């Protein structure tokens, strides 16, 4: 007797799939932290150098790069992205599909760098 593997198709938001509160905000924060980490890596910065640029202490840089974001608000992560010299573009638009919940789209640093070379990738984040 063989056992069929069970799986669940992801919604695209692991936090929502796990039933965590504020899943959209959690995913947005994770994407911003991923962007910050990608910029740090791309620039080959040490955590100490990144901390100086971000105007935070080195343990906070470590927390961001490890995805430990409990002490960081969405606003604070946006500010850190700006401190790395990156633009943030926020657009408010009507939801063209009323049957789905509204969402927030975050384009990460990797995608932004790729977009600069004509590749157009974006991450869609549900913001509840």
Structure description:
The chain is mainly alpha-helical and 128 residues long. It has a single domain, classed as 434 Repressor (Amino-terminal Domain). The protein has helices at 14-17, 23-42, 47-54, 58-65, 74-83, 109-115, and strands at residues 104-106, 123-125. The chain has a two-stranded antiparallel ribbon. Mean pLDDT is 84; it is low at 116-124.
Short synopsis of the structure:
By secondary structure, the chain is mainly α.
Considering the chains and any ligands shown, give keywords for the structure.
two-stranded antiparallel ribbon, 128 residues, mainly alpha, 434 Repressor (Amino-terminal Domain)
Topology, please?
Blueprint lengths: L13 H4 L5 H20 L4 H8 L3 H8 L8 H10 L20 E3 L2 H7 L7 E3 L3
Antiparallel strand pairs: 1-2
Number of DSSP strands? 2
Tally of individual helices? 6
- Our Rg estimate from Cα atoms comes to 17 Å
Strand ordering within the main sheet: 1-2
CATH-assigned homologous superfamily: lambda repressor-like DNA-binding domains
Q: Which class best fits the helix and strand makeup?
A: mainly alpha
